[in-house]
Design a protein that fits this description.
heterodimer; A: 428 residues; alpha/beta; TIM Barrel; 2 domains; 9-stranded mixed β-sheet; 5-stranded parallel β-sheet; globular; B: 326 residues; Rossmann fold; 38% helix
Chain lengths: 428, 326
Amino acid sequence: MSKTLIRGAKVLGGAPQDVLIDGQTIAEVGTGLSAEGAEVVEAGGKVLLPGLVDLHTHLREPGREDSETVLTGTRAAASGGYTAVFAMANTFPVADTAGVVEQVYRLGQQHGYCDVQPIGAVTIGLEGRKLAELGAMHESAAGVTVFSDDGKCVDDAVIMRRALEYVKAFGGVVAQHAQEPRLTEGAQMNEGVVSAELGLGGWPAVAEESIIARDVLLAEHVGSRVHICHLSTAGSVEIVRWAKSRGIQVTAEVTPHHLLLTDELVRSYDPVYKVNPPLRTERDVLALREALADGTIDIVATDHAPHPHEDKDCEWAAAAMGMVGLETALSVVQETMVETGLLDWAQVAERMSTKPAEIGRATGHGRPVSAGEPANLTLVDTAYRGAVDPAGFASRSRNTPYEGRELPGRVTHTWLRGKATLVDGKLT
Amino acid sequence: MQRHLISAADLTRDDAVLILDTAEEMARVADRPIKKLPTLRGRTIVNLFFEDSTRTRISFEAAEKRLSADVINFSAKGSSVSKGESLKDTAQTLEAMGVDAVVIRHGASGAPYRLATSGWIDAAVINAGDGTHQHPTQALLDAFTMRRRLIGRDAGLGQDLAGKRITLVGDVLHSRVARSNVDLLHTLGAEVTLVAPPTLVPVGVEQWPCEVSYDLDSTLPKSDAVMMLRVQRERMNAAFFPTEREYSRRYGLDGERMARMPEHAIVMHPGPMVRGMEITAEVADSDRCTVVEQVANGVSIRMAVLYLLLGGNEPAVSHARTAEEK
């Protein structure tokens, strides 16, 4: 088997060390390791992290291959430093059967850029009425453990309760897209000062917070774990903090864009800023950063949502919701959390690799950078600073809100079980 | 003046006063036997209407024709738009035909802004109403009507509306007229009060440069002009208010309420009125109600806007005299 020596990397941001990969595993971590028989990567002070894990990705295949495929999406993931992504179920057909989740899983294995762990739909067709065959999806080759109707909220309290209870039998978790549907009919952006002025339908914070409050209480009542997708408001943070203090098994994610952008950007009416849940206020952004720092919010997840150009090159109301995120996530986290002193790199690794792998039970991912562990690794040039150029994206879609914005950090190398998927910023 | 007219908030006080003064000049044209100026001869304007609005469309059309522009009316109904063509493609198609200005009415808030700023087309863009966002020419014609009635046709020239107390009543939440009026009236120095049931006032209104009241009766005696906004009956199905009857009782303007207004105060309505809902026939047909004047003033205002955006630097009136001499 081939050997690779990563020389002089700051492992989790610590003192420079050498890391020797032998085959699929990390053979040794130390200083002055022998390069004999190994290909050498001079890290030169770059930061080495465990391969990133994204609990919330839209790969669009099957059904919307014009916006993304498993191949293009996993290439984007490798470019962004990810070694595992969880693919959301809102495809066409919906991933609500063992057949669809196995197809997506196999495509990921076949392409080999990044492990693809399908998420199964909670209800048939994401319609919120009848439970999908959760057990069958778990027992399939895809081994589904995370279930979500993401894009839609499981708003029926009884269905949500049953789903939470049912998946306990096999250690599953329900990831809730918290959006009270009646409160968000016709919603186009965050409801507040800016929506009042722009005349765009409001998406009030309470529509998210009321569902989270209900679901943490349901999880407590039935003794299940629940995961909250893309938490976006200061009020949601307070509810999750309270739930954790009561010992409720709740985990939560925040997207990079909710850590950086606010609804002031919507004044441009440029649908590149249209996303669900919507961009919120500065106060929410600061509360989310603080919550990610203190652990109330467990992880960063991208909600990578590719859309073809024509779905964004139009008037606001007609545009699709969502932003691509896999290739900019780490840079945004560096900008908002590391350079502000809120997190160090070890904590970033925990929130972007270790914990998402734990929540989704992605075995072999999110492991320590130490001898004997699978060689899923990401090397980051944290000193880099440059403008985001969507033309260079591996994703099939370009709907990034960061075009032209200067951000720090650049992933230069990614290894999936010892195999380089990204070398010097180029996909292999 | 800017190249486009997208929002009343984009106008400075001087811009707005210039438009009102120019509209007075344009109004004189309407008093002549031949109501036509050669100012925009050879210029092409398209009225791009994605929403039905006969009165706004014909008002723009009359203004364009009085300025001798070539006019193309485009209604989205029955066109390629209904077959899924995008706003961008529609606009680019029209521009390829050599259009100098686009007057756009669209159901989506921000559509005119997108058209003006996305690099899709080069033509000037005039917002004729977008979603629940803005309707700047409506606000201008309202201000014009107020200035004439409250200050005077000649005395008003060069003046703003400083100190005038204007009350807007009704469905503020869904109203582009309310948003435009609040912006423009504030710029012109007026004091604005919005009156509506709390359900029909947007969250975030506290940042607007106006007062908000839920009580019509206490506001009326302190108003120089009361503008009634249309309230769609369907709103009661979404629980914005219980019944039409209760709405009328609490927020409708009838003769008795009108009597509480100061003697000089006027009643306005952007139309179309829902008689019996927000306004009784007695009020709508009274001398204090300016609805018909507002329509006439709309043509003058739209002529002024088109002239200032497209007409170049020559003064309108000398053009007019030349035209007459010929």
